[in-house]
Amino acid sequence: MARDPSSGIEIRVLSRRGSNVIHPVDIDTPPFLPSPSPEPVVYREIKHFKKWVPWLIPSFVVANIIMFGITMYVNNCPKNSISCIADFLGRFSFQPFKENPLLGPSSSTLQKMGALDVSRVIDRHQGWRLITCNWLHGGVFHLLANMLSLLVIGIRLEQEFGFVKIGLLYVISGFGGSLMSGLFLQQNISVGASGALFGLLGGMLSELIINWSIYANKLAAFLTLVIIIAVNLAVGILPHVDNFAHIGGFLSGFLLGFVFLIRPQFGWVSQIYAPPEHSTSPKPKFKTYQCILWVASVILVIIGVWLCSYEGLMQMITVLGAITCPVSLLQDGAAKPSLHIVWTNQIGNQFNLTCSSNGKSNVYILADPSSSQIQGLCSQLCN
Fold this sequence. Notes:
By secondary structure, the protein is α+β, with helices and mostly antiparallel strands.
């Protein structure tokens, strides 16, 4: 279509097979009106799925690094050891590789700073060590491995769920890992944030399960996470690695993830934010399986809190096949009572007793022994 500028007449060209004819046609053209500009689209952030700015996890990383620096300052290797590694660092230099292959302080310094020592927790009522041990590290390699993992795992979780939920998940999981470590490893001290880290991994797994309908690639995400957890647990087989803290932290985080990280289904959220003219039949906030998992996890968490009490701890020790053995130890010329855990294994009249505090084990042949007899034997064993 073309326009003749002299006549103001539009000319339409009709193309037909065999002939081309041009017909002048007079058309009334409407005046040119500018098209109305489209209204700008306003986007609202849905609070149930908004992204948080992570600051708590980086703060945890900084706190762990500062605590390691303070620990090395207190350690003061040049003053307390014959030889040190990296002498140019002065009192921040490291213990010899033979004593600490992780490039860190001595065991006595870690114990002084708050490492988990079960004998001190029980005998001297220093329960605070169950928390402080999570902020100490055995060396530079230990610190780097944990802090890199914390940044990779923790920042993503804090972005998704906020600092309150992830902070509680981190701290409580670390406490759960310390409890598990204290129950099964009583001969050595324990330090590190591994229990709390495994709690975050457990929380990621339970979050994936309880919010299963939200994820697009469900199976791929599940398999990836399971492989990561399995590889990290396999590392616990290595010597000097406290796998009980890993397992305790993972179980704590797994249960807490069902409680803290549950999300409403998309149908309910879209219903809340939809305009009135698009109203549909009301949908529940959570699916049935989410509610079941949440209630079951709350019950298990309450049981876990009870087990953390003294009565619950003694009951759990009994269920696990152990007894508590009061032993009087001579300290500073005076007899001081001490409580030890002794693992028992009975086959007929044969009793195998193992004192967890010193690792001593012995087999006794007893015919229907009384509890006082067993208490006397375990006292001898732990002394």
